[in-house]
Design goal:
172 residues, three-stranded antiparallel β-sheet, 10 strands, single chain, 3 domains, Immunoglobulin-like, four-stranded mixed β-sheet, alpha+beta
Length: 172
């Protein structure tokens, strides 16, 4: 078991450090005792769900689910599709998903970690400008967070023009 103890406060450093060690030793000696009474704290100790950028992850959710709350919607999004939860990665980082029932009681809290793309990506730097290519098996341009603004806009405009030609009957 891994334990993370964060100590803050205005006490002198020696007392804070000793207090932190005492709490950490107690948690490590009796890992389930501190959290057995509080299922919300117990659920926060779960390993994070890892979602790769530009991909989605499917999860089963409790039947009593009424509300989903994403800690930071800029990092991930969550929707229910036919009783299955779909988590979509939007940006790099760590956030959480809180699942509530109709009364507002927390059913579960799930940490979500969004990491880089899973496929073979080559990043090319031209001075301070960054370009990304997906190389599986041939290298093709791709849009990735962190690319230079001109490269990103050029690829996005190309994609938008291609999509408009693929669906000619649709008006925007």
């Amino acid at each position: 078991m891994t334990a993370f103890v964060i100590c803050r406060g205005g006490r002198p450093l020696l007392f804070s450090v000793l207090g932190c060690f005492a709490v950490a030793a107690s948690v490590l000696a009796h890992p389930n005792a501190a959290f057995a009474a509080d299922p919300v704290l117990a659920s926060t100790l779960r390993e994070p769900i890892t979602v790769h950028l530009d991909q989605a992850q499917l999860l089963k959710i409790p039947e009593r689910t009424s509300t989903l709350v994403i800690g930071n919607p800029l990092i991930a999004d969550a929707v229910v599709q036919g009783g299955v939860l779909v988590i979509t990665a939007k940006s790099y980082g760590m956030t959480n998903l809180v699942i509530l029932d109709r009364t507002g009681a927390s059913l579960s809290e799930i940490p979500i970690q969004v990491v880089g793309p899973a496929d073979s990506v080559v990043v090319l730097y031209r001075g301070i400008d960054r370009e990304s290519y997906s190389c599986a098996p041939n290298c093709e341009r791709r849009i990735t967070l962190g690319d230079s603004a001109n490269y990103f806009a050029q690829n996005l405009n190309t994609f938008t023009a291609f999509q408009a030609q693929a669906t000619p009957g649709e008006k925007k």
